[in-house]
Specification:
The complex is a heterodimer. Chain A is α/β, with parallel strands linked by helices. Helices cover 46% and strands 21% of the residues of chain A. Among the domains of chain A are: 54-150, Sandwich (Immunoglobulin-like); 195-375, Rossmann fold (3-Layer(aba) Sandwich). In chain A, the strands form three sheets. Chain A has a six-stranded parallel β-sheet, sandwiched between helices. Chain A is elongated. By secondary structure, chain B is mostly helical. Chain B is 76% helix and 0% strand. Chain B has helices at 4-22, 28-63, 69-88, 99-130, 136-151, 154-159, 169-204. The chains are: A alpha/beta, B mainly alpha. Chains A and B meet through α2, α4, α5, α6 and α7 of A and α1, α2, α4 and α7 of B.
């Protein structure tokens, strides 16, 4: 190598070395910048990360049919007004042979919440839960930022169905007591004990109303309302229909039963047919006496109103579940001068019937009417039992009023019902 | 058997509905749903019976030229018309823009609304009769109704502008509705509850049989 070449090589080496030094310095400087940024980010994370939820407990939901676990926790220390917590996320993992599986989010709750009900678990497996406390917000670039912390994992838990809903114990006692009174008085009545039953003006008037129709040679209409056969008022109505149609058969007066439910039609037809047979007039029963009109509320009201106006019945019975059509029907009946006996357990419709009808069975009287009309000792006994139940409630009301008024004891809590 | 089978079914179904309220454990928790599903199925099938009954009675009325047979003819024509329109449009008959939908929106709903609107006039005539001061109770009702109605409209409070806050007519109306009215209504509700329990028990135990035709 010549001297000139050596010098060129030396300068070139210097240049290369210089470049390496410069580059190294730059890299070192860059590293310094990165580490500083990391420290800033870490401190920001620490600042925005909420404190974790503590004391996470998972328990089988009580008084249920299984398939549900309640997870509860103590609030994060940052969960307060102006705090960092925006929500709690609940994670669940299955435990199989002591091994914890993969965690999956099963639900979330808002800040301030201390529990979550996981209603999607299998009774045959064990689960563990953890709660994530989240602080989420949108930054100046409208990007969602989330900072979170996780709680400790709960103890394994499994769900199971219970054999009794403990909160229904007061209802059970109440129903059992009422059933006892009813059965007791049915037995008493069966043994021939004379029972006093107060008069129901509406039912006392049934004979008079049917007799009036017979004298006038006009029809009797029986309207059983809008309820279907799964409604207790309709069942009560059918029992009254049985008694009324028996009377109508005895008096040989035509009974027209327009209905708005197919199942009610089938039932009512059977009831009326049997009543006619019982009265010794099976030939008087006609298939079209009980007829279906429509399921539509106002279509039914229009059709029945039309029949009232055209056929001018002497007597009309409204027994069952009624809604807005109650007054439309009752006022039309009133306008044609028919004697009207109504009965419903719809408190909102009672004033309309009271205003437009001659007699109204109010609430419980609808359910008592059939027994009252039949005069059968067993049925009257059940009415007596029902009245004793009412007496017990009355006594409880008076005691409750006094105790609550003087703030002696939280008596009303005994009667709280949870559905 | 004609009596026993329905009574047995009634007892089983009725008791299952009571039991499932207290016992959440399978199979009791599913019984009421199961029976409710069965009821819906039977109900859906029974609609055919209803429709057939309506058609049969209407056809006979027209055929025999019974009084007011024209109305029966209207029923038959309307029933067949809407059925044919619905069937011709297939599964999508209820979608907006179909002929069935048009009939529903522009014929059925206005007719129903007309019937509902008549209620306003009936309320007026019934109120007139109910609020006549025939005796002491009716007079009380009239006075209470007067103040409640007046308290429900803005002019009520304007009429008693001199009364202090909390003693306006609207407050009186609210008090009447929330205290004496609510107390009376609750008393009725308690009676209804007891009546339902008693009737249910009679039906479940088979003491009350008139709904299946009566008899022993």
């Amino acid at each position: 190598m010549s001297f000139k070449q050596l010098r060129i090589f030396k300068y070139f080496s210097f240049i290369i070395f210089g470049l390496i030094i410069i580059n190294s310095s730059f890299v070192i400087a860059q590293d310094d910048v990165d580490s500083t940024a990391l420290e800033v980010v870490d401190s920001l994370t620490l600042e925005l990360q909420p404190q974790p939820a503590t004391n996470v407990v998972a328990k089988d939901t009580p008084n249920d049919e299984g398939g549900s676990i309640i997870v509860s926790w103590d609030l994060s220390a940052d969960d307060h007004a102006g705090g960092k917590v925006t929500q709690y996320k609940v994670f669940r993992a299955m435990v199989i042979d002591g091994e914890v599986g993969e965690y999956q989010q099963v639900g979330e709750n808002t800040a301030g919440a201390v529990s979550y009900q996981d209603g999607n678990v299998d009774n045959d497996f064990q689960y563990v839960y953890k709660v994530q406390v989240v602080n989420s917000f949108y930054d100046e670039n409208a990007e969602l930022k989330e900072f979170f912390s996780e709680s400790k994992i709960s103890e394994p838990v499994s769900s199971s169905p219970q054999w009794f809903r403990m909160y229904t114990i007061n209802t059970l006692i109440g129903v059992a007591l009422l059933c006892f009174f009813i059965i007791f008085y049915i037995n008493q009545a069966s043994k021939g004990k004379d029972l006093f039953i107060r008069k129901l003006a509406g039912m006392e008037a049934v004979h008079e109303a049917v007799g009036r129709a017979t004298e006038m040679g006009r029809k009797i209409f029986y309207v059983s309302g809008l309820g279907d056969m799964d409604n207790m008022q309709t069942i009560a109505s059918m029992t009254i229909l049985g008694r009324v149609s028996e009377l109508a058969a005895e008096y040989d007066t035509y009974l027209d039963v327009p209905v708005c439910r197919s199942l009610v039609m089938v039932t009512a037809k059977e009831v009326v047919k049997e009543a006619y047979s019982k009265a010794g007039r099976p030939d008087s029963f006609k298939e079209d006496q009980v007829h279906y009109i429509t399921d539509d509320q106002f279509g039914y009201a229009a059709a029945v109103d039309g029949m009232f106006v055209r056929e001018k019945p002497a007597t009309i019975f409204f027994m069952g579940q009624f809604f807005a059509e109650s007054l439309i029907l009752a006022e039309t009946g009133n306008s044609i001068g028919a004697i009207q006996i109504a009965g419903t357990a719809m408190p909102s419709q009672l004033p309309f019937f009271v205003a437009a009808c001659d007699y109204t069975l109010i609430g419980e009287e609808l359910f008592a009417a059939s027994s009252y009309l039949s005069k059968e000792p067993k049925l009257l006994g059940s009415l007596k039992g029902q009245d004793i139940g009412k007496g017990v409630i009355l006594v409880a009301l008076i005691i409750g009023m006094l105790l609550e008024t003087f703030n002696i004891w939280n008596f009303s809590s005994l009667f709280s019902v949870i559905n | 058997m004609r009596r026993e089978v329905p009574l047995f079914i009634t007892a089983i179904v009725g008791a299952s509905f009571v039991i499932q309220y207290f016992i959440p454990h399978p199979p009791f928790n599913n019984l009421s749903d199961w029976f409710s599903d069965w009821f819906s199925i039977i109900q859906a099938c029974a609609i055919i019976l209803g429709a057939l009954n309506l058609m049969k009675i209407s056809f006979l009325k027209v055929k025999d030229k019974k009084p007011d047979w024209v109305y029966a003819a209207v029923i038959i024509v309307s029933f067949l018309f809407i059925t044919i329109i619905g069937l011709s449009e297939g599964e999508e008959f209820r979608l907006p823009g179909t002929k069935f939908d048009w009939i529903y929106n522009f014929i059925f709903i206005p007719l129903s609304a007309t019937m509902f609107s008549i209620l306003a006039f009936f309320v007026a005539s019934a109120s007139y009769r109910a609020f006549r001061a025939r005796n002491f109770e009716a007079t009380l009702l009239l006075i209470a109704a007067f103040f409640v109605m007046l308290g429900r409209v803005p002019i009520g409070d304007l009429l008693v502008w001199f009364m202090p806050e909390g003693y306006q007519l609207s407050n009186l109306a609210s008090w009447v509705m929330n205290v004496p009215q609510a107390a009376g209504q609750r008393a009725i509700m308690i009676g209804i509850g007891l009546g339902i329990v008693s009737t249910s028990l009679r039906v479940i135990l088979g003491i009350e049989r008139s709904h299946i035709g009566g008899g022993e």
